[in-house]
Amino acid sequence: MHSSHTPQMSVIIATPDTFKTIQKTLSYLRAQTVKEQLEIVIVAPSKDQLGLDESELQDFFKFQVVEVGPIPSVAFANAAGVRHASAPVVAFAETHAFPNPEWAEALIEAHKQPRAAVGPAMVNGNPDSAISWASFLIAYSRWMEPVEAGTIEDLPGHNSCYKREILLEKYGDKLDTLLETESILHWDLRSSGYELYLEPRAKTQHLNPTLPASFLGELFYYGRLFAAARAQHWSFFRRLVYTVSSPLIPLVRIRHTLPNVRRAKQHYKLPRFVWPPIIAGLIAASVGEMLGYALGAGNAMEQMKEYEYHRERHLAERDRPAAAS
After folding, report:
1. In CA terms, which of 54, 106, 154, 185 is 20 to 30 Å from 145?
2. What is the dihedral of CA 177, 181, 185, 186, to 10 degrees?
3. Taking each helix axis from N to C terminus, what angle separates 130-140 and 212-230, rounded to the nearest 10 degrees?
4. What are 175-233's pLDDT values in tens digits?
């Protein structure tokens, strides 16, 4: 470890099992232009079970392992990482998202302004599949490269960067829940007068599911989780209205997705039949939202953990070799 003063950014990455799960993402973090300014915060159930290879962490400012026992959700792990981080800025990394070498440098520079959060431009990390494109366009097309820098209302969930002090002082124990559905966190920051900023010099390649069942399942469970979190303090009548109105959600989201699909076609070679999985995915998400408004989150948080940490299990066989390289 290095021993000078304070890191500029703490990068939080969690694994529900072993070091191998996070190795590929760490290789991209080691390629950062400012790696010597980064603290790596590994959140894991147990350091003994982790199988840590310290030789892969020596190039960073420092690293630490936060032991939390069984990890019930991504948000639980990320919140624990925030509380233990030592840098003024904290960024979340994923096991299936791979930042470009200038990612950390660009985010650190953008945070020199009084902004609560800064997010990167997103790139489809496995663009040869119609299902991958459908997943990417539904989840990340608002921030799809190329995109302009500037103040924005929402940022890419699980891939953005925050001022640590704001998260801890404003949200405290609520952070464990809010980091599961970060759009709600971003809306609250905006309503409180904080600025969110998109920095396209920071780019992240995002690996998306290509198995149909995984693609639909992830959207269904996230939709349920999002709706349950959004409606947590609503009246029974308001929840009922949103439950009954849920079948209209795909129509609304198609209208918002259409210009982003057109923009993607200008810059990328999209598969010919990308719209059928987009429509199917939006329907799955709306069914999840309907259940979330009506019945709460159920087991959605536990299900989402599987999609987040072990993305390779949700790729078709033909896609796995490229994703592993």
Report:
1. 185
2. 170
3. 10
4. 998 998 999 999 999 999 999 999 999 999 999 999 999 999 999 999 999 999 999 99
What's the angle, vertex CA 124, arms to CA 121 and CA 126, rounded to 5?
A: 155
Instruction: Kindly give, in sequence order, each residue whose CB lies less than 8 Å from that of residue 128, ignoring residues fewer than 6 positions away.
Output: 271, 319, 322
Measured distance CA(128)–CA(74) in Å, rounded = 28
320 with 312: CB under 8 angstroms? yes
Residue 82, C-beta contacts closer than 8 angstroms, at least 6 positions apart: 12, 90, 162, 164, 167, 168, 175
In the structure encoding, which two tokens stand for residue 254, read together?
């198609």
Q: Is the pLDDT of residue 3 over 60?
A: no
Take residue 42 and report the two structure tokens written for it. 């590994």
- The per-residue pLDDT for range 47-67, each reduced to its tens digit, is 999 999 999 999 999 999 999
Cα–Cα nearest to 283, from 263, 265, 305, 257: 257
Q: Distance between CA 216 and CA 133 in Å, rounded?
A: 13
Please, which residues have CB within 8 angstroms of residue 269's CB and are 6 or more apart in sequence? none
Specify the amino acid at residue 225. Answer: L
Is this model's pTM higher than 0.90 or not? yes
What token pair was written down for 80? 């624990």
Query: Strands, DSSP E only, in the chain?
Result: 9-14, 38-44, 62-67, 89-92, 97-99, 117-124, 150-151, 161-163, 196-206
Helix, strand, coil fractions of the chain, as percent rounded to 5: 55, 15, 30
The torsion defined by the Cα of 265, 159, 156 and 142, in degrees rounded to 10, comes to -20
**What pLDDT score was predicted for residue 211?**
97
Provide the 3-class DSSP secondary structure of residue 69.
coil
